[in-house]
Specification:
The structure holds 2 protein chains of 2 kinds. By secondary structure, chain A is α/β, with parallel strands linked by helices. In chain A, 47% of the residues lie in helices and 15% in strands. Chain A has a 7-stranded parallel beta sheet, with helices on both faces. In chain A, β2, α2 and β3 form a beta-alpha-beta unit. In chain A, α4 runs parallel beside α6. The radius of gyration of chain A is 18 Å and the shape is globular. By secondary structure, chain B is an alpha/beta fold. Helix content of chain B is 44%, strand content 14%. Classes of the chains: A alpha/beta, B alpha/beta. The interface between A and B is large, with 44 and 47 residues.
Chain lengths: 259, 257
């Protein structure tokens, strides 16, 4: 940690990060690269992917322009990574988001699109990645959930479909952890509070001043997280330091709520 | 991963405990200057000796349940190192008691005694930790969050209620103090430990119970103190900046919250 010449903590590891062109996923991909990993980044945002590969020119990033909600994207990516880099060590299920809005007034198609993006995608990538990890007898799966899935949205604006999907991600985390544990694979989740990604900043700008002040007052540490402070938790979960941690959710909400 | 300050000072209490001593060694190996404290000075030397040969760990014998001892510890650390960045509290392990039979008020007195060390240590450390923007990390047993033991006891000879009470109280205090000490730049978190290699609990199980226990644990094996120390190192570092008031299970996927 403070050794004079710190060892890269993910040397020679191979990772996949879904939705990694922007925001938390991008911060994770960049940190993993800095720690020696080779990272396949899957995103539909081709411009974001381009800017990421420009920023990480060392050949450690493989940009995969694909829709992470499709089973074929997951299967193709795992196959490509296995061919190019010889296997898969770490899966970061980061893709997610809310489509449409509202609570019970959401349309059925928005509801299903949100569940597909934020929950079913995690299932598809776990399913596609597990065999490659099982064959090596080790692996790390890190699911990016939300405090909205554990308690409720801190701003109140995240919506029913999104919160429900994120709650599902936490249960998927526990259950897949138990299923894959005997193969030496750990599965954990991070439940962030408000994060200052581009999308997060935009969401906060749209909040009424009063709501913003309330959430800030409720956040013990008194600030919203830069994406790097979520990425550093993902690094812990990807590293040897978390070898006996599985099925857990690490709450990263600055003390907004904890249990 | 970086510590709060370049060459942090970490205090570890109940450091004769195997998990606490593993944490002391791990933090030292990662560059921290470590002071390890335990009521049992000789046990402390023995616990740290195995790995401490090339580490710089200062030992200090003190009973933190006794008034003034925690201040003596903190003052010594400040004199020696100038500041404190991390406090790791070892597990509260009160003895099992005969309950609800037996002495009246024994549950409360036994649990309170174990809790007193934690409270005294934390209270004494707050001022120096405020100056450094420091961390408190508590090693808590499963009894505090879930319960002890894997199985329904066949007989109810002795109760672990004091352990549940003391460790549950520590988790409650961590949540509360994370809020109250946030303005003073102090973060508090816990690791909740599962079944460890070398634990008495596992040794006392029948063959069949051991098999059952290992089936319950997702990873299918016991943990090691060094693995818990890995999670403690995370909570001691800047990597956990946005994490406070939480408890991380380090149990190989037994109970999951």
């Amino acid at each position: 940690m403070t050794d004079n010449q710190p060892q890269p903590r993910l040397a020679d590891r191979v990772a996949i990060v879904t939705g990694g062109a922007n925001g938390i996923g991008r911060a994770i991909a960049s940190l993993f690269v800095r720690e020696g990993a080779r990272v396949a980044v899957v995103d539909i945002d081709e411009r974001g992917l381009h800017s990421l590969t420009e920023a990480e020119p060392g050949g450690q990033v493989l940009a995969m322009a694909a829709d992470a909600t499709l089973a074929t994207s997951a299967e193709t990516t795992v196959q490509t990574v296995a061919t190019e880099w010889g296997g898969l060590d770490i899966l970061v299920n980061n893709v997610g988001g809310r489509i449409g809005g509202g609570g019970l007034d959401a349309t059925e198609s928005d509801w299903q699109a949100t569940i597909a993006l934020s929950l079913t995608s995690h299932f598809l990538w776990c399913r596609a990645s597990a065999p490659a990890m099982i064959s090596r007898g080790r692996g790390r799966i890190i699911n990016i959930a939300s405090n909205a899935g554990r308690y409720r949205s801190n701003t109140g604006s995240s919506g029913l479909s999104y919160s429900t999907a994120k709650g599902g991600v936490l249960q998927l985390t526990r259950t897949v952890a138990h299923e894959l544990g005997r193969f030496g694979i750990t599965v954990n989740a991070i439940a962030p509070g408000s994060v200052l990604t581009e999308a997060g900043v935009q969401e906060e700008r749209e909040l009424e001043r009063d709501v913003y002040d309330r959430v800030m007052r409720e956040t013990a540490l008194g600030y919203f997280a830069p994406p790097e402070e979520i990425a550093s938790i993902a690094l812990f979960l990807a590293s040897d330091d978390s070898s006996y941690v599985t099925g857990t959710t690490i709450l990263a909400s600055g003390g907004w709520c904890a249990s | 991963m970086q510590f709060v300050s370049g060459r942090p000072v970490a205090l570890v209490t109940e450091a004769s405990n195997p998990i606490a001593s593993a944490a002391a060694l791990r933090l030292a190996r990662s560059g921290a200057r470590v002071m390890a404290c335990d009521v049992d000075g000789e046990g402390l030397e023995a616990a740290l000796d195995a790995g401490a040969a090339d580490q710089h760990i200062t030992t200090f014998a003190a009973d933190l349940t006794v008034g003034g001892e925690a201040d003596r510890l903190i003052n010594f650390a400040i004199e020696k190192f100038g500041h404190i960045d991390v406090l790791v509290t070892g597990p509260a392990l009160p003895p099992n008691i005969s309950w609800p039979n037996g002495q009246k008020d024994q549950l409360l007195s036994v649990a309170t005694h174990a809790l007193r060390g934690w409270i005294n240590g934390v209270q004494a450390a707050i001022a120096p930790l405020e100056r450094s923007g420091g961390r408190i990390i508590s090693i808590v047993t499963s009894a505090g969050r879930y319960r002890t033991g894997y199985f329904r006891p066949e007989t109810m000879n002795l109760s672990s209620a004091p352990e549940a009470l003391a460790n549950g109280a520590i988790l409650s205090l961590i949540r509360q103090l994370a809020l109250e000490l946030a303005p003073r730049r102090i973060r508090l978190n816990a690791v909740v430990v599962g079944l460890m290699e070398g634990s008495g609990e596992f040794a006392q199980m029948s063959e069949r119970e051991r098999r059952f226990a290992l089936e319950e644990i997702s990873l299918g094996r016991l943990g090691t103190p060094e693995e818990v120390a890995g999670a403690i190192a995370f909570l001691a570092s800047n990597a956990s900046n946005y994490v406070t008031g939480t408890a991380i299970d380090v149990n190989g996927g037994w109970w999951m919250s």
